[in-house]
Amino acid sequence: QVQLVESGGRLVQAGGSLRLSCVVSGLTFSNAAMNWFRQAPGTEREPVARISWFGTSTSYGDSVKGRFTISRDYAKNTVYLQMNRLRPEDTAVYYCNAQINTRDYWGQGTQVTVSS
Question: Which regions in the chain score pLDDT beneath 50?
Answer without folding.
Answer: none
